[in-house]
Design goal:
- This protein has about 475 residues and is an alpha/beta fold.
- The chain has 14 helices and 23 strands.
- About 30% of the residues lie in helices and about 25% in strands.
- The strands form three sheets. Strands 1, 2, 6, 16, 17, 18, 19, 20, 21, 22 and 23 form an eleven-stranded mixed sheet that branches. It has an eight-stranded parallel β-barrel with strand order 7-8-9-10-11-13-14-15, surrounded by six helices.
- A hairpin with an 8-residue loop joins strand 19 and strand 20.
- The N and C termini lie far apart (about 65 Å).
Length: about 475
């Protein structure tokens, strides 16, 4: 039985993967490059081949902060926030309306990130009491915050209204009375948006599509007039407009255009009984995780999105509303890189058709506790040797974690030099969004530190958890210690 292996030199960029039934069609062997669409702007290799992010050598970062390590290029994240705001505001102004840009805090939220977003002139979208508390504690003006979620507790609603959040997204009919009562107790008029399940089937993973009929978010289009009437009947509430979010990691704008068309049809009906000044189309702008992915440029996304709203408004004979958008992944995702230390390496022979093939498993000191997206969504990622240069041939690899799960995969398919060995550092880009927020303590693994790099300097955004942190939360151990 023949065994197929990748055997192309990384110094030969014209070569492609030799036939291997385990290699996906998208995967071609390139030099161990840092594709600009995937890696943070400015990421590069030094003369010795070691990766540098924000001017900082990853070897020094690993030595100082340990691995796994979330590394965030502060300049890139700030620049992308400004770029998103500029693009959508410019496109809206050309259409004669205003635009409000919210950063979707669920993507990646720390106190410093809150301050960076405020500095960039963005508002911030939160969806839990914890995110609200962090945003306020970090100094975000309450009036610049949006608060949404499908099951906001009475305590969360009370906290948001009392703090004076600028907009609260009502996700269901029963929330109308809850928010109105909280606002009346606070002696204020709370501005609200109504989240609508538009029924648009976004082209993305099933779990990332958030406007299909059979899911938990928003109210059905048929229920919108009644819920809006209930909002308007409450003197402590003010309707800002409708809210839509069709999904996440969406490349292209066709879905947004269809959502705008459907919501503006509703808006035409609602305008008979009052004003509807805004339309919030949510976020979900996609990014590249591998070099073959080609998401649209932010200027094109903004231009197409506004053009779609203008066209829909003309179709339905309504004024073009002010716009709001909520990008998160697009801002934070490309700014982040996760650095791991290689451990065990195994070559596993796998039956494939009439022959067999070798899959090289490269284990690292993290896994699904710091990147659940591969296991949860089947997401694809890129990996590169980060601590040194190599002239060895490239081999197909699967990067896996240390957890007691066969599905604990970080990178399903990519290539690394054949001489990758224990102790090497490898880096996975495009991990700035959702990785820190979705991190867990599965198998009682401590969560990584998050560090920001800029101008060659690094500082801690979130410290690494310790074993002591984990044990301190176990009441049985705490009680036993108090009896000792």
């Amino acid at each position: 039985m023949a065994t197929h292996r990748i055997g192309c030199s990384e110094r030969s960029p014209a070569l492609v993967i030799q036939p291997n039934p385990l290699a996906p069609d998208r995967l071609t062997v390139e030099p161990q490059d840092l594709a600009s669409a995937v890696w943070p702007a400015g990421a590069h290799r030094g003369p010795d081949g070691a990766l540098r992010i924000g001017g900082a050598d990853v070897r020094g970062l690993a030595e100082r902060f340990g691995t796994p390590l979330y590394v965030v290029d502060e300049t890139v994240l700030r620049d992308r926030a400004r770029a998103a705001r500029t693009a959508i505001e410019r496109a809206a102004a050309a259409a004669g309306v205003r635009a409000h840009v919210y950063y979707a805090g669920k993507a990646f939220l720390t106190a410093d990130v809150v301050r960076w977003m405020v500095d960039a002139g963005l508002r911030i979208d939160v969806c839990t009491g914890g995110e609200l508390a962090l945003a306020l504690a970090a100094g975000a003006p309450a009036g610049s915050l949006g608060f949404h979620g499908n099951d906001k507790s009475p305590a969360e609603i009370e906290a948001a209204v009392t703090a004076g959040v600028g907009a609260l997204v009502i996700d269901s009919a029963p929330e109308v009375a809850l928010v109105a009562a909280a606002a009346a107790r606070a002696g204020r008029v709370q501005r609200v948006r109504l989240r609508v399940n538009s029924g648009v089937h976004a082209s993305t993973h099933e779990y990332l599509a958030t406007a299909r009929e059979d899911q938990k978010f928003g109210v059905a289009r048929s229920d919108v007039p009644a819920v809006v009437a209930a909002i308007r009947a409450e003197p402590s509430l003010e309707l800002l407009g409708l809210h839509s979010h069709i999904g996440s990691q969406i490349v292209g704008t066709a879905g947004f255009a269809e959502a705008a068309r459907r919501l503006l049809a509703l808006q035409r009906e609602l305008l008979r009984d009052g004003v509807v000044p805004e339309l919030n189309l949510g976020g979900g702008w996609g990014i590249a995780y591998t070099s073959d992915q080609r998401p649209a440029d932010v200027e094109a996304v903004a231009t197409d999105l506004v053009a779609a709203v203008v066209a829909a408004a003309a179709e339905h004979g309504v004024p073009v509303p002010d716009l709001a958008v909520e990008p998160g992944r697009w801002i934070a995702g490309p700014a982040g890189v996760t650095v791991y230390t290689v451990g065990t390496i195994k070559d596993v022979e796998v039956q494939a058709g009439d022959g067999s093939a070798v899959r090289r498993y490269v284990s690292v000191d993290g896994g699904m506790s710091d990147n659940i997206r591969t296991a949860l969504y089947g997401a694809d990622y890129t990996v590169r040797l980060a601590s040194r240069d190599s002239d060895a041939p490239l081999e197909l690899v699967r990067v896996v974690g240390k957890h007691c799960e066969s599905g604990d995969v970080v990178v399903r398919d990519d290539v690394l030099p054949a001489d990758v060995r224990a102790g090497d550092l490898v880096a996975v880009p495009a991990t700035g969004a959702y990785h820190h927020g979705l991190a867990s303590n599965y198998n009682l693994v401590t969560r990584p530190a998050v560090v920001a790099v800029a101008g060659g300097a690094a500082r801690t955004l979130v410290r690494r958890e310790t074993i002591e942190d984990l044990l301190a939360r176990d009441a049985g151990l705490v009680a036993a210690g108090s009896r000792a």
